[in-house]
Amino acid sequence: MTITVLDTYPAIQEILRAPATARPGLLRAMLQPVAGMYRYFPGEPDLVALHTMGSGFPLDRDEDTCLDALDAMRAADAWGRIERALEHGLAVQRDATPGITVPDITVLLIIGDPGDTHLMGPNLGMTANGSVSGYLYLNIWPYPENLDRLEATAIHELNHNLRYNTGNVVWDPATVTVGEQIVSEGLADAFARQLYGDDLGYTRVGVPHLTDDAVFGKVVTGLAVTGMQNFAAWVHGDLTAARFGATPVGLPTGAGYAVGNRLVDAYLTATGQTAAQALLVDSKDVIDTALTATPR
Question: Which residues form the DUF2268 domain (predicted)?
Answer without folding.
Answer: 101-287
